[in-house]
């Protein structure tokens, strides 16, 4: 980009030198060479700039290139065309008028596609254009048309060019009333149009006197104008010139008034000059000028008030009311402009999400939460002011956008973490704000929203890995989201189409291997992808709420299967079914009624069912869960704490909640007989459970060594591949229930018919 900036200024220097050579009028050959170099060089510079900077909208620049070619053609043939007759004498004018039309079309395209029609900008531009047009018509166009010793069309064209310049001026002014005015390429474009206007005005002046050609100095403004047009195309900001955005209604600043007031005064000047300086005309001019001044003063006051109101509305629409930072809409717009600029150093987003902010609001109230957000925004503003854009896009989510490489974002993330580590002093409390940060560099994405989604994915990954982490986006994160969406859609269909099924794993006595129960485990066989692991789809089911339907299905299917085994005479008297219950189910007061209805329909006692719950459900103030669990125990249902020892294992909740069993996590069972530490943990769990009169089940038992260790630790029941994997109901009955028929110590129950079951 530095090369592009240097190239634009080098072109200006070369163009000025060639213009000076042309003005010296050394010889016709030198003049032709200088004008040819400027003309051809301008076209080449525009083509190079278009290919080098690659603006999003190329059409305006293509039209400007064609306009330049037309103008160059007009300059080349003008001297020849003056001596021709018929249509040929208008050859230069045909080229020139075509150039004006193409240039006007280029500016109109740029305005309509990027800025749109702005009433206030159009009105301001029309005021200036009408004032200039009046002066040009009265003093240039009409005098030129009155010259009688040449064809009328020649005279009309001689005075027409300043009016065409006024049209170009109107379009450029409207462009300048947008955010384009701060771009170097726009300033070069204004100088180019100014050169065109001055040159045409010079020719119009001699045209009003009856001449069509004159001193080489008359062409000097055109050469300088072409030079500025070349510099405009070579400057890197040309890519932004066709991607500008409108401003809100602007107050009439001194800069605007310097354009508008002379335009408003033009009728008064015309009256005085054209009608003479008599006292009557002078009084009329003064009165008209006074009225215009009064109207301008009134209009300035109204416009300024309206502009202030508009700015306030725009600010409220694009900024966060609490912190004063830009909001998501403003961020998206600014990042879109950053992407459109095509700067080589790249663009990145840093997405910051406060960890545990909800707890601050829940424990200390939203007022304290707001104060914390204000303090965080101040610290972030201090770190980013002048270098990056900072926005608050949600409750506790902030985004920083900047140019640069990912390493710069990494450095800023480290500074932010350091700043966040400093305690926040709030009234009556001291807090520390911990933030997870996701970084998304510009890769293959070409929109602000897609880049923001990448940053969101990165911060979600950071939060999933723990508090205060920083993660940089990679394509695998996007793929994982696609996979997750596909899993969700397929899972919804599976629930509706009955693709889920239940498998059963035996729970046995560790000493004898005799089955005393079974755990019901949901399985999913996708018609195309085949078996899908519960590790993949259960978290999705919990996030989407499908876990309620799945849990109800597993519970219903388990009770139904128990009744079928009973009716086939395969069910031992103390055999029970263990079913996993989700947190959502345990917060539902209707769960007791659903289970009671199922037990009644299938004529099963409450002791035939045990619900497995996770430790996390029992943590905190869960009065609703406590009430539901109490009501379930009232039905005689067993309650087992799953994966015990890996979470928030505590005597307090085991004593407060009506649990009946703990299941030792497989992580501790694996090391039995090998790791003394795991054996000590299991021994402690058994001792604690015995003291609280709770049963103990060991999960994940795979070897005889582990089984023997459990027997030595007085763990009466176990579950694992040593005794069998989870299998379909018919295979479970064949492997585990029918084998009990051969046991001399077991007496089978009286078989019941399936008809009696259907009547239940």
Offer a concise description of the structure.
With 760 residues, this protein is of the alpha/beta class. Helices cover 61% and strands 12% of the residues.
Please give a structural write-up.
Pfam families: EAL, GGDEF. A hairpin with a 2-residue loop joins strand 2 (389-394) and strand 3 (397-403). Strands 8-9-11-12-13-14-15-16 form an 8-stranded mixed β-barrel, surrounded by 5 helices. The two termini are 82 Å apart. It folds into 4 domains: 2-247; 251-315; 328-473, Alpha-Beta Plaits, CATH 3.30.70.270; 485-745, Alpha-Beta Barrel (TIM Barrel). The chain is elongated, with a radius of gyration of 42 Å. It has 760 residues and is of the alpha/beta class. Helix 5 runs parallel beside helix 10.
How does the overall form come out from the CA principal axes? elongated
Structural class: alpha/beta
Number of domains: 4
> How many extended strands?
16
- How much helicity do the residues have? 55-70%
Number of H/I helices: 29
* CA(first)-CA(last) distance: 82 Å
As for the CATH topology of the largest domain, it is TIM Barrel
Task: Set down the secondary structure blueprint.
Blueprint (H helix, E strand, L loop, with lengths): L1 H23 L3 H26 L5 H24 L8 H25 L3 H28 L5 H25 L7 H25 L11 H15 L3 H4 L12 H22 L3 H40 L9 H13 L6 E8 L2 H8 L1 H19 L4 E6 L2 E7 L2 H15 L3 E3 L2 E3 L3 E7 L6 H17 L5 E3 L2 H23 L2 E10 L5 E12 L3 E3 L1 H11 L1 H22 L8 E5 L2 H4 L4 H11 L7 E6 H4 L4 H11 L4 E7 L6 H6 L4 E4 L1 H4 L6 H16 L3 E4 L5 H9 L4 E2 L10 H9 L16 H5 L2
Parallel strand pairs: 6-7, 9-11, 11-12, 12-13, 13-14, 14-15, 15-16
Antiparallel strand pairs: 1-3, 1-6, 2-3, 4-5, 8-9, 8-16, 9-10
Helix pairs in contact: 1-2, 1-8, 2-3, 2-8, 3-4, 4-6, 5-6, 5-7, 5-10, 6-7, 7-8, 10-11, 13-14, 14-15, 17-18, 18-19
Keywords: Membrane, Transmembrane, Transmembrane helix
Protein name: Diguanylate cyclase (GGDEF)-like protein
